[in-house]
Amino acid sequence: MALGAVLAHVLDDDVQQRYLDSARQSATLISVVGIQPLLDSRELSTGLTAAEIASIDGRLQGAAVSQDVRRIKVWNTAGTIVYSDNHALVGRTFSIDDDLGDALHGTASASVTDGHDEENSGDNLAGPLVQAYVPLVFSGSSKPSGAFEIYLPYAPVQAAIDQETSRLYLVLALGLFAFYGAILGVAVLADRWRRRLIREAETTALANLAVLERLNRLKSEFLTRVGHQFRTALVGIQGFSEVIKDSEELDLVEVKGYAQDIYSDATRLDRAFGDLLELDQMQAGRVSLNTSRVSIDRLVQDVVDRMHTDDARHPIVTRLDSHGELVQCDPERLSQALANVIGNAVKFSPAGGEVTVSTEVTDDAAVIHIADHGRGMPHDFGDGMLTGYEHSTGLGLPIARQIMEMHGGRIWFDSVAGAGTTFHLSVPLKLRPSRGIAKAVAAARA
Length: 446
Known about the structure:
This protein is α+β, with helices and mostly antiparallel strands and 446 residues long. The protein has helices spanning 2-35, 41-46, 50-60, 98-104, 155-178, 183-246, 252-283, 296-310, 331-347, 396-406, 435-445, and strands spanning 71-76, 81-84, 109-113, 129-136, 146-153, 292-295, 316-319, 326-329, 355-361, 365-371, 410-416, 420-428. Helix content is 52%, strand content 16%.
């Protein structure tokens, strides 16, 4: 029994420490992925307005207060709470304790608290809880501009400790009753069992961390590419404006020419921003479908005719073979997706290169094929452009993918270097439920 008590104590400390390490890593990921993109160093220093606090609440979408997270806080270097899901704490200043001080000096930490610290006065936190502090370091600075604090429930830790302790005592008791001399072997077996469970937990945690890191990388690439498009347009606007401002010899024709260039860049910037908002609304389920039964051939032909009118430099050939098959869809959204894909094919086709649009019907879907004779996709490109960004930094293909998912369909492509790319858009003959549709219906009902 003494051996069991010692092992249980060691096991308790080991489980708790591993949970604290996991909590610190989770807090770091949440800070980088979910908190830092919503703030900047200026806001930490001056504080947030009520509108900015409400905006952050909306972006977090209620994820802060749940069974998994009990409280979040964002501190500045003066010890003032700049943001919290408990708005009664915002703007209050407390003395900086050791854990917060370490975070403000660049060191993350995690510990167990009873929820009765000075900084929690006036709050309704019931301990014990796991609190983790993470420094907030923004781009362009090497020192923390503040700290992120998160409170997690301690109950899972205690439950894991109790469960592991119960298992351990059961194994020891069975070993004592079976044969006193086998107690050492039983203890070794229990230790191996504990280690195996810990390894499995670590494997799962590492897999989750890998997913979060990939999402963070995709987010960074997305912001970089979209930011590049915005900056390109702004450089043009700024450059032409400076020419007009600084030159004293421009005539009216030259001024109008520069003004047209500024207008074109501003229009492109507005279109890119509109695409970004539209994609965000689709992914959040705030766009609903207005469906009707339409001929897939007629819809394809109408889109091609409009694109011929807008740009006749590239021949677009149609081979429609759906025999007038009707599909249940949102004609406007499906036309938008088709136009985005055809436009992409035209853009990356050589001058005068033919683009072929064809249709066919399978047992359960109408499939639209768009083939070009361009240079093909890079060999390491995968489907990255279909998950949030495309090679030209535009958002046409991600929007097309989202529209197809809302219809319960899908989009994919085949590509051969130097021989062109063929995109395939599959539309179910009968509209099937999907996550996108469910979100859209919920948004429409709300």
